Amino acid sequence: MEALSKLLDRACDIGMISGLETSPSTSSELRISHLLYADDTILFCGDNDEELRNLRCVLLCFEAVYGLKINMERSEIVLVRSNYAAALADILDCKIGSFPLNYLGLPVGAGARNKDVWNVIIDRMERKLAGWKKMHLSKGGLGIRSLVNFSKALLWKWFWRFANERLLVLVFASRIPSKISLKVRITSIQGKFFV
């Protein structure tokens, strides 16, 4: 999809497609020609024949060069403030859509203050979380470790290594004053950690 992104950026840079102007009132002009996520794409361009023919040309070039097919049967053209959708849809050979539309499972073009829009999303998340909760909580918790138990297990792991690996014993033994026996020192360390 990186190649398609570069082609669309270049087409926007040279004026083949206009893209979406984000802030016309400021001096820094930012135009967005597309949004990509995995294999989902939203393209932005003007609502005239020439721009749509240019967009179609860019898409055909992408298909020819990279050998990937864009499924126009699953694609939709959604117009903002335009009256001749049928003619423009014929140029791209795709269906006509309308707002609100779903992109990545979220409604685009729906009123953000409309509770019905958010209720659908909240219900979907509750269903997913319920399934996740049933699947993971029944297997012994969320996978969050008790820090005390984890620390104890890690310390015992090191004690076991200390007792079973001769080189490690020699290194640690050289650090411990010779007047204190090794067992007494280990017991004192255990007492500090395992209160």
TrEMBL record:
It comes from the Eukaryota. PANTHER family: OS12G0587133 PROTEIN (PTHR33116:SF78), REVERSE TRANSCRIPTASE ZINC-BINDING DOMAIN-CONTAINING PROTEIN-RELATED-RELATED (PTHR33116). This is Reverse transcriptase domain-containing protein.
